[in-house]
Design goal:
By secondary structure, the chain is of the alpha+beta class. It folds into 2 domains: about 5-120, Gcn5-related N-acetyltransferase (GNAT) (Aminopeptidase); about 150-290, 3-Layer(aba) Sandwich (Aminopeptidase). It contains 8 helices and 13 strands. The strands form 2 sheets. The chain has an 8-stranded mixed beta sheet with strand order 1-2-3-4-5-12-6-11, with helices on both faces. The chain has a 5-stranded antiparallel beta sheet with strand order 7-8-9-10-13, sandwiched between helices. A hairpin with a 2-residue loop joins strand 3 and strand 4. Pfam families: Acetyltransf_1. One of its GO terms (molecular function) is acyltransferase activity, transferring groups other than amino-acyl groups. Keywords: Transferase. This is GCN5-related N-acetyltransferase. It comes from Streptantibioticus cattleyicolor (strain ATCC 35852 / DSM 46488 / JCM 4925 / NBRC 14057 / NRRL 8057).
């Protein structure tokens, strides 16, 4: 690795741009998998704004989990962003520019990010199909659970209406959201909900049978958690019906435990394909749950 140095990611626009430049280089079309693994990223203006907010949010809440690898002559060559929420550690991003890959940069960054989760009983990573990433996470002690993704244009006529009330959520539902998180994944998202609410529609269901929530933006279901499969199906149905007509829908990182999601997706006319891996340590795949690859 030569003279590579590690330093914390700061809550600044400059550092957010540095993280974005590393990420764009690492996942550029010429280096990304296009067969269902790490898809090339289209850096629209909206995506850039969301990405900067995500980087700065994690730099504020988890300075010990956010690291840049730099070389004096070339600048930033790698980044890791990780957060800890109660007893759960989660990796939000690990990226290394192509010229620095194979030199131990990713291993070093992951080790530093994992130090931030020391004492956490559980760990979670939404990993791609890239073989190097899979090998790295397995060597770090994570169990790899193959995932699927649903994609396609929703046919509303094929979907039965939700079997119960689903309404718009707001910041006032934070206690409900955190309670569901603790029951499903063993740790609340806490401050992450404020960021998710900035860019996503929040749908909430809460009745005598239990409760749950889902975030959706455009065609992507960003995050979903519920206390039962029935409520999860209700929320996913509502989320898919919320997708703008004709816009492709996307539901990612579904493990084999999420058959309820496949049933809803197939009913809506979506196709299923292989994804990457949900990498877990100290826990089984949370269900019913659809993780966010940014906030898990």
């Amino acid at each position: 690795m030569g003279r590579m140095l590690l330093r914390p990611v700061r809550d600044t626009a400059d550092d957010a741009r540095a993280v974005q430049a590393v990420t764009a280089a690492a996942f550029a079309p010429s280096h990304a998998l296009t067969d269902g693994g790490t898809a090339p990223v289209e850096w629209t203006a909206e995506r850039l704004v969301r990405f900067e907010r995500r980087v700065r949010h994690l730099a504020r809440t988890d300075p010990g989990g956010c690291w840049l690898a730099e070389e004096p002559d070339t600048g930033p060559v790698g980044v890791a962003l990780a957060g800890r929420r109660e007893g759960l550690w989660a990796l939000s991003l690990l990226a290394v520019v192509p010229t620095a890959q194979g030199k131990g940069v990713g291993t070093t960054l992951l080790a530093r990010a994992l130090d931030h989760g020391r004492g956490c009983l559980r760990g979670m990573i939404c990993g791609s199909r890239h073989p190097v990433a899979a090998r790295l996470y397995r060597r770090a002690g994570f169990t790899l659970h193959p995932t699927m993704r649903l994609r396609g244009v929703v046919d509303p006529a094929r979907l039965d209406p939700p079997d119960g009330a689903v309404h718009d959520g707001t910041e006032r539902h934070r206690d409900l959201l955190d309670s569901v998180d603790r029951g499903v994944r063993g740790g609340a998202h806490g401050p992450d909900h404020a960021e998710l609410l900035r860019h996503h529609k929040l749908l909430v269901t809460d009745d005598l049978a239990g409760s749950g929530y889902a975030y959706v933006s455009g065609g992507k279901v960003e995050l979903l958690a519920a206390t039962s499969r029935r409520l999860a199906s209700r929320l996913l149905t509502a989320a898919l019906l919320y997708v703008p007509q004709g816009e492709p829908a996307l539901v990612k990182d579904l493990t084999a435990d999420q058959q309820w999601a496949l049933d809803v997706g197939f009913a809506a006319g979506l196709d299923v394909a292989g994804g990457g891996y949900l990498c877990l340590r100290g826990m089984r795949p949370p269900a019913p749950y659809v993780p966010s690859d940014s906030y898990l």
